[in-house]
Amino acid sequence: MSLITSTSPHASVKNNTGAFMRQVIYATLPGLAVLTWQFGWGTVINVLWAVVVALVCEGLFLKARGRNVTFYLKDYSAVLTAVLLGLALPPTAPWWLTLVGVGFAIIVAKQLYGGLGMNPFNPAMIGYVLLLISFPVAMTQWIAPGEAPSFTQSLQLFAGQLPVDGLSGATPLDTFRTWAGNESELASHGILHGDIAGQGWEWVNLAFLLGGLYLISRKIITWHIPAGFLAGLSLPAFIAWQIDPVRFADPLFHLLSGGAMLGAFFIATDPVSAATSRMGRLVYALLIGVLIWVIRSFGGYPDAVAFSVLLLNLCAPFIDYYTQPRTYGHNKPNRGAGGAK
Amino acid sequence: MQHAQPVQPASREPHHRGLEMTQMEGAKTSKPKSIFARLAFGVRRPAMINDFHGGIHPPEMKHLSNGTEIAAGPLPTQLVLPLNMHIGAPAKPLVEPGDRVLKGQMIAEPAGAVSAAIHAPTSGTVSAIGPRPIQHPSGMDAICIVIDTDGKDEWVAHSGISDYTEHSPGELVDIIRHAGIAGMGGAGFPTSIKVNLGDHQRVEELVINAVECEPYITADDRLMRERAAEIITGIHILQYLLNPRRTLLGIEDNKPEAIKALKQACKGCDIEIRVVPTKYPSGGEKQLIQLVTGKEVKSGQLPAQVGVVCQNVGTAYAIKRAVMHGEPLIQRITTLTGESVANPGNYEVLIGTPVSDLLHHGGVDAQNLGRLVMGGPMMGFTLHNPGVPLVKTTNCIIAATAEELPEPPPEQPCIRCGSCAEVCPANLLPQQLYWHAKNDDLEKAQHHNLMDCIECGACAYVCPSHIPLVQYYRYAKGAVRQQAADQLKADKARLRFEARQARIEAEKAEKEARRQARLEANRKKKEAAAAPSVDTAALKQASLEASKAYKAAVKAAKAADADGAANASELKAEADRLKEIADKAKAAVREAGSAAPAAAPAEDIVGKLKKQVGDASSAYKTAVKAAKEAEANGDDNAAELRSKADELKANADNLKAELRDAKANAPAAAPAAPQVDPVAELKKQVGDASSAYKAAVKAAKEAEANGDDNAAELRSQADALKATADQLKAELRDAKANAPATPPPAPAAAPVDPMAELKKKVGEVSSAYKAAVKAAKEAEESDADNATELRAEADRLKAEADHWKAELREAKASAPATPKAPPVPTDSPAVPEATAPQALAAVDPAAAAKRQKRLKGLKTAYNMAHKQYKEAHAAFERAERKEEVTADELNAMQLKVDKLKHKADIARDALDALIEEAKADIRAHTGKDLKTLKLEAARAESALADKKIELEKLGSSSTEDTLEALQSELKALEAEAQIARKALKQAVEEQGLVEE
Q: Of A145, A169, A193, which marks where a domain is finished?
């Protein structure tokens, strides 16, 4: 009889990190479905291709680093990164765009930093920003809503054998960015007026919101980051909109456009690169939201989730220093970095 | 009376929930807390004001064991009772192996304030007291009392108190202390201390912990269901002891039967039953206090500091049994559970029962047993040896199958998901703590309040990456404690070092000051002593110079006179002036001399006279010589010169007479100045006179040979000189005869004994003899004609040597044989010369014996003092190494060590002083110190050895004579060595000294 000897506790949840990741991946499915409905099969093809690239890159680098490849691949973190980046890429993206983006995200932004848990920046957003800066044209060509290409067309686009121009159109964010302050032009662009917000995107964002709520209900994420994110985005938007509705978009438009919900529930909530405490996460997400609104309203890019998240990733350790919770038995929380006093 | 508290919303609907839980076999019982759930059901109950942060809801698994009544445990053949089942000092055994003990008999008593007694759980025989494996997570051994049971279960005489209110709280605390009761919830803190807080500490709330929040455990649950009345009585005793303002009993809502039983038992009493929601770790002391009182115990403080005392229900029950029935803590209710147990349930087991006996009793399927846990699954520890005993704090044994509590999955990277922070009851950030602990960044870990972790295991339970977080915190805490201990140690060492440096500096300074003072005193003394003598010396010097100048002048004048130079008179006047000066100087010296001891006026007078005599004599001689020369040359001034010489002679004679007078007076006038030897002076005079006479004779002879007419005159002159010389010689003889009597004898200073002189003589003669023998041999060999002569000389020397040797032997033989005459050292001048040698080794025997005794006493005293000091020092060092000793205690010890050292030093000094005294005595009595005696002995020994070697070498080649001479020499040396040895031994023994 050989008894198990280990330290307490002797029981633990049946959960594991892989299960956490899988839950997040499942939660993206509504969003993926709506994207496909609105913009064709391009996104699905992107996601699948991205997963393949991610697994290969991750596997190769785990092997190079002398790690147990299957054990670490089972944590699904690479898959999740690939899925999130695949969802963020335009459905018109050719294969090489995804390859470069995902490869960079997995190899440089994650494995070179030491793998899962060690990356200071959100890998998917690193890949996205790399592509956005390097290939701005390819990255801003979205399918016009309601004009989804066929599966064959999508495959041709993926293979880079079909010119994008014929299928692409401006997104509501692009349109608003172009005509902000011009009331008549704004009124003439129907794309800005869907059933709730911008055409097509309102449904996409609602689908991601649904997936996000599922994550909160499964306690995969807490409400702090999404709430902070959405509040940070909508509050300045509401104030500005109250002041000048022609110059500034209304908060609902902001919330249901572009990558708002994907960012709030799936991107900013990446725990590795986020702040740690509840208060820290609230502050972190709030600042992301504000930054997105600032860039959308005044910056050079129509959407700004990736930039905002990365900028706040930089700030996360600093935020952590000043948002420690008050420990039981202490009068006030500790502040500062500690240690090097 | 209704105790459902309006502020305790949990009690509104706990029953269904609790029942549901217990009936949900192994199902996940974590409450859905999702937004959907809250939206769907509304906010089910208002958030508890006093709820603590975090907490988890692991599967309770209580259904396994809470369905059956408490059953009797096994009566094992052997009980193993560790001396340390509680927090604090191990108990002190009161029994020996072989002793028969009765049930309830105290077998180990509490040692110190924080300790608990141990009692025999049943009757039997103590078979051993020694190390046995115990319930320690590391599997270490500890000292245990082993009892072989006899199955009779025979009680020792015991009786309880029917009405505890008739006894003072102090008496009851004593009963609790001697009943060996220690916190039954798991920590095992001696209860007597917790219930004896003293008058200054007001207890606001007495909190009874009936939460039992860990999964699996149902011991308290069953106890409350079945023995609620006894528990309530125990709580009443606690109330009597602590006099709290309120008594709150906290119980989780998953024990409806227990709640019901308690409420029934305490109808009308002042115990408030607070039902708290089921959540782990509500049973943590701090968590429960927060739940039922809303108070937070400050970090690093005890509940008593916020006016709260927390006691376990099991402890209350044990107190009741001890006070009312006189039963010490010898058994407890332990849950035996787990899926490999056939009959899980609660058993009333004897303390010390080996776990294996209980497992056997409960029908454990050994094949299916995967993990054996003592305590709960969250905070218990695994046992690797089922032979370890159950102790006072063992509330549960889980015999789980490998599927039930499987091996933890492999650790995955932390993704900082924050699940741990969500559940931490101390509101820590476990993921950050883990990060810092893993990086050994203890400072940052402490900044994140590492030390406030209660190791409840909630974080590790929820961790999706299966990181053994608690283990990381335990490690980091250990490292922090080690660091703190090291720091403390280093600080102490530094303080000690600094104190020591300061002490050494102070000692040095003191020593230096003492040395300076001594130097100063010495210098002053010397100055005081030297001042007059320096003056005298200077005066003497001046006087001497003046005399010299005068003499030179006189000489010059004479020479001038002789040459008939014109300036002769002038020179004479000058000489006179100088004489005056010299006289003045002499007078000054005389004055100084009389002012100083009884100095040397006589010496000076005599000396002056002598010098004058000398001068006169030489002047006369010169004159005679000149006269002779003149006569020889037939100079016409010869007669003149002669008359001059005559004049000078008269002068010299005059002076000589004066000198004689002065000398006759001198011994009487200056007895204190014996340094100037009149004999020597006389000798010199005699010499002078003789030479003058001889010169005169020579001159006379020359004159006669030349047929000078003044030859007869010269001859008569020479005769006169001869007469003078003869007279002086006679005087010298007289002086010599008187000399020993006249100069004040200084025997103390001159004990260079006759023995030594004899020895010297023997040595001299021996070497002379040897040289003669050698010369004779050489002469014989070369056939020199003086060979026979040399041989005769050698023989003569040998005879002489033999004679001296014999004398030496005699002297030696008489010297040690002389009884220790009692001469007092200071009176030595009174001792006649002849007895001085015998006085060498003589010491006052009574004084010596006394000193010997004192020496012995002092030695013992010193040895004891030194030993005490050494011991104290060692104790101090030991104490320093231990942490629990306070700085004050250390200081006290240091003081004691210093005091003892001082004492030892004083004894040592006294001893040294006495030894010095003894040595000085030896010196005074023998004229030698111990060292000299030793040296002499050693020298004698080596001389003896050398001689032996020489004898051996010469043995074959030498003549009879040589051999004989050598033999006798050897004998003499042997005797000498023996004497030296004896003298040394005697001196040492007499003074009670021990040879180092």
A: A169
Contacts 24+ apart (CB under 8 A), B570-576: B575/B550
Q: Provide the 10 A C-beta neighbour count for residue A253.
A: 25
Task: Say yes or no: A117 contacts chain B, CB-CB below 8 A.
Answer: yes
CA distance A116 to chain B (A): 6
A272 chain-B contacts, CB cut-off 8 A: 415-416
Question: Is-contact A167 A150, C-beta < 8 A?
Answer: no
Q: Among B427, B429, B444, whose Cβ lies nearest the Cβ of A339?
A: B444
Tell me what pLDDT residue B800 has.
Answer: 73
Q: How far is A173 from B616, CA to CA, in rounded Å?
A: 148
Q: Which domain holds residue A30?
A: 16-169
Could you tell me which residue, B792 or B530, shows the higher pLDDT? B792
Beta strands B92-93 and B106-109: pairing type?
A: antiparallel
Range of the domain at B8: 1-64+159-327
Whole-angstrom Cα distance, residue B823 to residue B838? 10
Beta strand B205-209 with B308-312 is parallel
Q: Containing H/E element for A106?
A: helix A95-107
pLDDT of residue B510: 92
Helix (H, G, I), strand (E, B) or coil at B502: helix
* B370, B408, B418 ranked by CB distance to A222: nearest: B418
Residue B555 in domain: yes
User: Does residue A5 lie in a domain region?
Assistant: no
Same structural domain, B703 and B833: no
Whole-number Cα distances in Å, B924 to B754, B830, B946, B987 = 17, 15, 32, 11
Q: Are residues A150 and A217 in the same domain?
A: no
Q: Which helix (H) or strand (E) holds B974?
A: helix B960-990
Is A289 inside a domain boundary?
Answer: yes
CA distance B944 to B975: 9
The residue assigned the tokens 């208002």 is: B46
Q: Do B524 and B479 belong together in one domain? A: no
- Residue A33 shares a structural domain with residue A53: yes
**Residue B402 touches chain A, beta carbons under 8 Å:** yes
Where among B301, B327, B353 does a domain terminate?
B327
Count how many Cα atoms sit within 13 Å of the Cα of residue A278 in the half-sphere of its side chain.
Answer: 14
Choose the weakest-confidence range: A29-38, B23-32, B444-453, B815-824: B23-32
Find the CB nearest B215 among A5, A11, A20.
Answer: A11
d(CA B203, CA B381): 34
A168: distance to nearest CA of chain B, Å?
38
Q: Are residues B488 and B596 in the same domain?
A: no
Nearest to A10 among B373, B464, B471 (CB): B373
Residue A131 clears pLDDT 60, i.e. is over it: yes
Same domain, B577 and B677: yes
Confidence of residue B875 (pLDDT cuts 50, 70, 90): confident
Is residue B154 a part of any domain in this protein? no
Residue A328 with chain B: CB contacts under 8 Å:
52-53, 286, 290, 296, 299, 425-427, 452
Does residue B133 sit within a domain?
no
Domain membership flag for residue A24: yes
Instruction: Classify residue A339: in a domain, yes or no.
Output: no
Pick from B768, B749, B763, B905: nearest CA to B836: B749
- Count of structural domains within chain A: 2
* Residues counted in chain B: 996
Same domain, yes or no: A100 and A215: no
Interchain contact A113–B (C-beta under 8 A)? no
Question: Do B524 and B458 share a structural domain?
Answer: no
Same domain, A137 and A281: no
User: Are B410 and A4 in contact (CB < 8 Å)?
Assistant: no
Residues B274, B287 contacting (CB under 8 angstroms) = no
Tokens encoding B951: 């004898």
CB contact under 8 A, A9 and B377: yes
Asked if residue B578 and residue B446 are part of one domain, the reply reads no
pTM, two decimal places: 0.61
Same domain, B455 and B532: no
